[in-house]
Structure formats: C-alpha cells, structure tokens
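agent> Task received from the user: take the single chain below, predict its 3D structure, and emit structure tokens. No templates, no multimer pairing.
agent> Plan: (1) validate residues, (2) run structure prediction, (3) serialize to tokens, (4) report one or two observations.
agent> Step 1 OK, no nonstandard residues flagged.
tool_call: predict_structure(input=
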Amino acid sequence: MNTATHLSETLVELDVEFVFGYPGGRVIELFSDLGDTPIQVIRPRDEREASVMAEMYGRLTRKPGVLAGQGPWIGSLGAIGQMEARLGSSPMVVLTEASERGEYSTLAPYQQARGDYGGLSLPDILGAITKEHWFPRTPVETLRSVHLAFKHATSGRPGPTAVILDGGAISKDVPENPVPPLWDANAQTKTWKSRPTDADLDQAVTALEAAERPVIVAGNGIHAANAYDELVTVADQFDCAVATSYLGKSTIAETHPRAAGVIGSFGHEGANQVVSEADVLLVVGSRLNPMDSNWQAPEFIRPDEQTIIHADADTRNAGWVYPADVGLIGDAKETLAALATRGEATSGWAKDRVAEAQQDFTAPECEANSSPVKPQRAVKEIERVVDEDTIVTADSGNNRFWLLNYLQTPAPRTYFGSGGVGGMGWAGPAAVSAALATDKDVIAVAGDGGFAMTMTSIETAVEYGVAPTYVVLNDTSLGMVREMDADMPGVEFQNTDFVAVADALGGNGIRAESPDELRAGLQTGNAADTPTVIDVRIDRSERMADTLQSSFYASVGGLHE
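)
tool_result: status=success, residues=561
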C-alpha cells in the first residue's frame, strides 16, 4: 500500500476527526487520500489560522489537533499555533514536508527546506518550537514516526509534535512484512497517567491539615487533565480558597463560593491578596510565570514564610520559579483525587475571604450607559449571554485583561484565552475550531487589531457551517501599546468598517455604539445560523493598565510586558 494511503488510514484508526491545513508540496498526496476517509479537512485561508484551529481543538478535546501543510508555510505562518501549543500545553500533531525535490535538493531548488546548503532548514525551525519532531526517510519510518508523534503529543506535559514527510518516505509503498515491524496504531500510541508518591502525598496532606489559610492556585494543568471536579473536591475537603492563573481561568466556576478570581499583574487585586495571605499554597498545573506571580514582587509569594506544595505533570516545573516544600509529580486529576482520599480540614477562613475577593468582578463602570461603550460594561453584556453551554475565546491585548477581570464565568471550560505565547489574531480561528469541536455557542472577543489579523476566519466559519459571534472591542488602535506611549508610531488604525467586512465574507455585521445595541447584537448573534460580527465602539479613554494593575505589580515598576 502507498505510504500516503496507509497514513490516512492510520489517522482514521486513531479517531482523528479533523485535519486543519492547506494543501501544498508533498502533503498534497496525504490530502488526496483523506478525501476517501470520514476525516473532515478544514481548509482556512492560511496556515496561521489552521495552526490556531488545531491548537484550540487540542486544548478543548485533549486529543491532538492535526495540522497539515507545506513545510515553508507550516514553519512560518503556522508557527503561531505551534508556539501557543508548546507554551500552553495543548496536544497537536503537525504533518508537513520539506518541499524535497529528489536529486535536485543539493542544488537549492525552489522552496527546498530539508536543510541542505542554499535552502531552508525546516527541521531546525520545528526543533525550536515543537516538543518533538521526526524526519523519517523510509515509508516504515514515516508510519512509526506518526505513531510516536501522537504518543508524545499527549504524554507527560502535552504539546505539539511534528513529522516531516520527505520524498519517497511518503510516496513509496510500505513493505508487506517490514523489519522492524509496524504495530497497531492504537497500541503504539497508548499512554499512561502518573501520580505522586505516597510519601509526598502524605507530606502535602499534613501541611494542608495544619493550614489556617490554605489557598489553591489552579493553572492550565487543570484544563489539561480535565480535573475540574477533583479541584472542587479538594478545595471543599481542606476548606481552601481557589485562585487561578491567567490560563487557569474557568478551571472553576467563578461564581463558586471558593473562587477568588485570577491572580497576576493585571488580575484581581482581591485574588492576589488572598494568595499573599495564605500560609499554605497548593499550586496545581501552573508554573507561576512572571505575569501570574506579579513579576515576583517580593511581598506577593514568600517561600520563606509560606509552605508551597507544587503539583505538576513535569518534575522540572515543580519548584521552578519558587522553591517548593513538597513536589507532587503526576497528572493533576490523579494527584487531586489522591489528596481527597487522604485527609480533611476546616479553617473557617476561606469562604468569607473569597466573598470579599469576588467583589472585584464588578466596578461602577460595569453599569455605565455611556456611548462609546465602557469596556467594563461591554464585558458585562457578554457575561449576560454566557452560560455553561457557551465558550468564550479571548485574544491577546487589553481585551483579554478586561475579560479576565469582569467576565465572571458561570462554569468550568467556558473561557479560553491566548496566553501560551499570547499571539494576537488567536480568538477568531479558535472560535471556529471550538464551534466545530462542540455543540456550544461560541463568542470570540478581540480588539480591532487582533480581529483584523484573522478576520478571514469568518469565511471559514461560513464554509463549514458554524456560527460563532465575534465581538470586536474597537478603539481604532493597538490599545495596550498606545497606553505605554501614545506618540509611538504604528499604534493608530484607520476606521475600518468591520460591518461591511463581515457582510462581504458571508456573515452578518452589526455596529454597536451603546450598551443596548451591544445587548441586542449579542442576542442576534446567539440566535443566528451564520457568523455575526459586532463592532463595538469602546471608550478609548479607559486605560486598562492604570485601572487593572495590581498593587504587587506596581511595587516592581509595572509594565514589564
């Protein structure tokens, strides 16, 4: 059997639902065979959007999102989604090629990317941004590499893996009885979950039972392990408050009586204070990177005064930023389930303290009826239509921080934001992917800068029959950069007519210049069977950095972004 045909059958065996990509180079052979399978090929307008769609699919389903396309473009345009997957722990498998031209490759042919003199080195590019990559040279190596790519994408800390399909390694026939043999794809890609040692679990329980002010910091690892129920169980069992990292938002319903909010430099002041007041911190699935840790403001987290229990799938991450007293190495779901069976405690502190912290989810501007619309009020109008069957995708920039602070999520898995590498233009393609992968309502929120980068995702949504709502918080500028320096060249945009853009791409465009118009637009979008773009003119005098900067972040000088 031809290797490309065998590969497409392997993807079917592994229950691949979608391949996101753009046909080109030697990947055309794979695309041709996919047409004879139940796998749906989703072809957006470019590889950037395809990479984001694959990353979001992996983030939502925890099955590898498959990205396919020609090497030079997967290694450039398509790098955005791969970098987000690498830093945000989303499983992804990339199937690409080196635009190999056989015996002409050493003569620097057009687009050649296998690394010979005169060409590009796609292996070097992918080696820098993926978790693992393979460059097989025979049909058997190709198929075994694909098995390994799926295995490594989900094992340990999830992430992107890549296979570079080259020349005869994709076009030749697979031997009937190869040596070494080819094993069953599902057997070869199987993974196992790890859990902490009994001694480490006992030490963690001892600390939690002795705590007077226990706090859990829930990170993206809770999403990755689908450990939502276990998180709440442990919080109840040991009477903890729960704060989240940026990527951990919606790991717990933020209306829950234990949910204190989002920590970090532009997070909730109340949540930051709760974490700082803790005597025992149980950090689960968060590295405590600089944005989450207020750029390590000395008075925020204090290892010499607080007991730190750090749970992570990767032993290198436990105690990475702050020295940990206890490391719990394993899958977050397994770790939390084990803790819940080993002890319990009552401090009497957490719920009252959380009730106070939750006041930060609102502000007087959230009720403002002014025009242009206050961004705080815009978020509260979005919140009105978000229920447990809604997913919000948030772009990078000011919009993300307005959402982090004022969108009080009603259930787990209702908010996902660009925050691994944090590239602009993420929310739109991610919303299309979320709509394809689930039967939920999806709302993409972006500034006008990020929305314009990938607004052709509207056309992709139309083509594949899904209808996300796009909310553009439009201040006709790069808002976050403008706040740093209003005189900086390149921060202002022309007044683009996004309503006309939406209509031209097959969607429905709505201009909203007041809260009432935004509310009506969201209701229209929610009911529509085509994508809806709501161009919300927001008050650009509202300065996100000044309004939302935490006191801890201010103490180290602020605006390290």
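agent> Step 4: summary for the user.
The mean pLDDT is 95.
agent> Done.
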